[in-house]
Amino acid sequence: MKKELNGVDVLSFVIHGAIGVRLLTLPRDIIEHANNNGWISVLVSGLIAFYLGFAFYWLCIKHPGLNISQIVEVTLGKLLGKIIMVGIFVYIILSIGLSLRSTAMSIKVFLLDTTPLLVLILIMIIPTVYAVSKGIKTMSIVLDILLPIVLLAIAMLVGLSYKKIEFQNLRPVFYGGVTPVIRGSLNLVHPYLGIGIIGYIFPSINNPKSTKKWIFIGTAISLAIYFLMVILTILVFGPEESKILVWPTVSLSKAIQLETELFERLESLFMAVWIPVAFTTLLTFYYSSILNLKALFNTNKDHLIIYGQIPLIIIIALFPGNIVELYKYLNWVNIMAMFLTFIVIPSMIFMTLIRKRRMTQ
Amino acid sequence: MLSKILGIFKSSKKDKKEDDCTPGNRLKEFNVFSSLDKNIEFLKSILSKSEDIVYRQIETNENRYALVYISGLVDRNLIENQILKPLMDLRLQSLLTDLSDLMDNLITVSDISKESNFFNLINNLLSGETLLFCDGISDALVVNSKGGEKRGIEEPFSEQGVRSPRESFTENIEDNITLIRRRIKDTNLVVKFYSLGERTQTKTALIYLADNAPEHVITEVQERIKSVNVEGLVASANLEQIIENHKWSIFPQIMSTELPDRVVKCILDGRVAIVVEGSPYNLVVPGTLAMFFNSGDDYYERTIPASLIRISRYISFFFATTLPAIYSALTAYHPGMLPTSLVLYITGTRIGLPLPSVIEMFFMLFTLEILLEAAIRLPKPIAQTVGIVGGLVIGQSAVQAGLVSPLVVIIISFTAISSFTLPYYNFAMVSRSLRVFLLIGASLFGLLGVVVLWILIIIHVASIETFGVRYLQDFFSFKKEKVKDTFLKVPYELLGGKQEALKDEDKK
Question: How many domains does chain B have?
């Protein structure tokens, strides 16, 4: 693979991989477990985020030229490696399908109510497939260009809701004990596993060592964004009310009222700005899936792999009957993510260490 | 996959290359004959279809000569005073023994050469040079006597500037190269000539700085030019379309300009200029997106005003493409987003209007396109009238007749004006095309359509690669050098060389 990316391009990949459509609903999940200490949950989950970032970086540095799926095969053996890769494939496909469904539903509720879900899903798939078929340099440029939009959306939300903040919602601190906080932080594993995209782009990076700084910065920024979202939700709505909000982030934008009469119903505008954010996450996951399948079947046939996944994704996206089922399935996906993070990756690191020790002996 | 579908448009005329027996190529086998009469006869048989070729025969005591030239293409004064006069001078007759003597001692013209192959001789003749045949010698002299009427250096036609120089390129290739040479006095300046087009043999020049332009760009351009295989190359725009990477894209990948100072700035940046005979618009490759938004004037103005104007250009490009679409999307799909008073006002103006909001917008957009097209081709006396007709009659009267709402007319006019803030005229075509697509997207899917279409546009633009250089290479990869000349414009000496940026891709 040609080495087309620079170290600094990793920044946009990390942020876009981590910030996805789940940001819209996540504060509710965390607050459900951790009540008004949700913001501590996010900080705790930061440990997971940095652990993931570092783990991927380390694994890819130790196996230069291989993407993470190939590293799985190399470290865990062919049979187990293939099984894990199938597992990764299932995880990614479910992730994409359910995120797509989530995006389509939020668009349907806030932007276009009468458009059928299938149409919305197709519309989101088209730019994703188009971008992926153009190659990684194009993807990196697109992500670079769309990065300011993500930051702008968040800044807009933060800046405009300051009026409604009531600090007393933060108290009491640590009322329910530490365990709910930890349980809440585990909800964030699925978004943070989006950082795994760097595992797939490492072979295309020019000077891998320089990415360390950018991975760190990217993870820190994603963490900051999640933190801001959660803490804003708590501050503006309070824990009890947040638990009944389906899309707390969008409700935040609903709560904003501009002094001047420039725009009403800001949540539609917010949703419109959110579409690129959702799209980029889909893009990174899609690219990971393609590279994963390529490593699984050891082939280079782009067309079949890129276009063949589309029907599968559409079926998965249309599968959940309503939003409650959607969240049930998303929880399963989160459990799969936890499995990957806490079992698969440490074993890969462990095996790499053993192999290194064997080689130096 | 898209290219396969578009491949059905490719014609199968490419197999003409194998035909080596074209009349032109057959001439390569013939050399000049010794006998003067035979030479004249041969030329007359080849060029029998042209009756404007002059065969001037001279007889002196020693020898017989013949001058052949095409009357409109030559400078008559030069032929009469510097060729005929010395040849017919009785005092110098005895000096003549050989063609070399003629060349070295007699003919007082600055540019002479000897040639013996008829293929080259006829090409020279058709380019405006004079052939001199001598009886008994199987060589001919080619005297550069190019002349004839041509346009002088005038003011630019479509690219105005306030402070930029007013010279613009003309159709004559030598004048154009002179205009560039006057500004770059460097031994590293490379000027390479090619003749493109089978029937037109258009003279084309490649101009670049050898130590500045990246290697891969130079070789790529040279290869593409050498592989040009058309019957005729009439203007630089033809060449532009032939050597482009992405022929079906809306976005131009090669810049064409008629201002010498712009071309010189690009050559100094490490790009390659292509000058084509017969066209006042010269090409600069590779053309990146930032180039189309920078006007020459920016470099002559102060930093902060120039930066602000540049930012406003980007914003106005965005408006020029997206404003009709946003209006349609908001009024048709998300009226809740507008402030209440505005919604009421719009509803008020739309009472009794027959067409739905989206159709109205399409209708006005179409009218705008018609006006723009007509305005280019109008003869001067009518141009004024059409301005009034377009503005007052169509716009105002349509509103009063109750066909369209006044807000739509305002939006369309604002859009039209914004699309002309771009310094590069052809880029206005881009915004015109994108406008239509965005409007279709907005009418089908509201704001979602607009956003998704913009994402598609961004993906498309990000994937364009011209001559090994990315189209958006000034915009991605957050490095501070990149901002220096795109959104902002720093004082001149801090601009540095763009050649590092062009060489970025070289690291493969």
Answer: 3
